[in-house]
Design a protein that fits this description.
This protein is mostly beta strands. Helix content is 5%, strand content 35%.
Length: 142
């Protein structure tokens, strides 16, 4: 099992944790009380730093209940292995009502995943594919 070390920077900080066995995402908790108005963005502090092993990344995702019930969505969601600063969750209120976060509340989830480093080669032509250049909506809306 992969080991990810963390350090508390604040006495109210909670260790990231999986809510259920087999869950993909670690719950992340805020150390702040903060209200976000509709259209407002904020960086919610977690009070922790993590040491993600080389070759892995932390990807920040919404908590589904906060997203679907209150219109709260995470923005900017990559935690590189070399980052050692405090984790703060960038979140936006795209809903219609103000939302208040309270200290100790789950605010997002982080998935720890392997990273593949790519090399790039410039080419005059690319291979054909069945999709081609079809982008947004190219497979239909139904």
């Amino acid at each position: 099992m992969l080991k990810v070390r963390f350090k508390r920077l604040h006495p109210d900080a909670k260790m990231p944790s999986y809510a259920h066995p087999g869950d993909a995402g670690l719950d992340m908790y805020t150390i702040e009380d903060r209200t976000l108005a509709p259209g407002e963005q904020a960086m919610l502090k977690t009070g922790i730093v993590m040491e993600i092993p080389e070759g892995y990344v932390g990807l920040v995702w919404d908590k589904s209940g906060l997203s679907t019930k209150h219109g709260l969505t995470t923005i900017a969601g990559v935690i590189d292995a070399g980052y050692r600063g405090e984790l703060a969750i960038a979140i936006a209120n795209v809903g219609n009502e103000p939302y208040t976060f309270t200290k100790g509340q789950k605010v997002a989830q982080v998935l720890i995943q392997k990273v593949e480093q790519a090399t790039f080669e410039e080419a005059n032509e690319l291979s054909e594919s069945s999709r081609g250049a079809g982008g947004f909506g190219s497979t239909g809306t139904h």
